[in-house]
Amino acid sequence: MYRYRATDAEMSDWQTVGVNSAESLSLAVHRLKPGTQYQFLVLARNVDTGTALFSSPVSAATAGPAGIVKDLVNAYVTLKFTALTR
To answer: pTM of the prediction?
Structure first.
């Protein structure tokens, strides 16, 4: 299982934005504000070995002018990553 967390300059804390099964290595995060820079973390959890540490933060920005919140439905970021193997 993967848990995704996000924050922006206006958020006071990291918020969970999605959870996926271990087979899925991407997540589309919707309802983001246009023209906004976000940071994302991924946390992996394995039933056999437990919970790993959060990943390093990754930055992404949504398109559009900042400060104008008119289309939260179409403002999104797709996160894709490669799982590390031992």
So the answer is: 0.70
